[in-house]
What does this fold into?
Amino acid sequence: MDKRPRKQAKTSSTASQEVSSIEWEFIEMSEQEEDLINRMHRLVGDRWDLIAGRVPGRKAEEIERFWIMRHGELYAEKRRHASRKS
It folds into this structure.
C-alpha cells in the first residue's frame, strides 16, 4: 500500500458574500427604462449586459435585480406550469 500522505483539497479562506433577495433594496426605474428593459428582454432574453448597454447609467446587476424583483414570481410560476405539461 502507498505510504505517501494524501493531498488535501484546497479550501478557500474567503466566504462567499451572496446576498439574499430579501435584503435587496427596491430599484426605482423610470417608465421609459422599464419599457426599454421589457422590449429588450423580449428580443434578447436575460442577457443583462446587453440590455444594460442600452440603458444609460444602469449596470447589468441592477437591471437583473430589478427584473427578478418585478417579474420573479410570475416567471417562476410560468416555468412550474410549463414543466407540468412536459
Remarks:
- Confidence is low (pLDDT under 50) at residues 7-16.
- The CA atoms of residues 25 and 54 lie 23 Å apart.
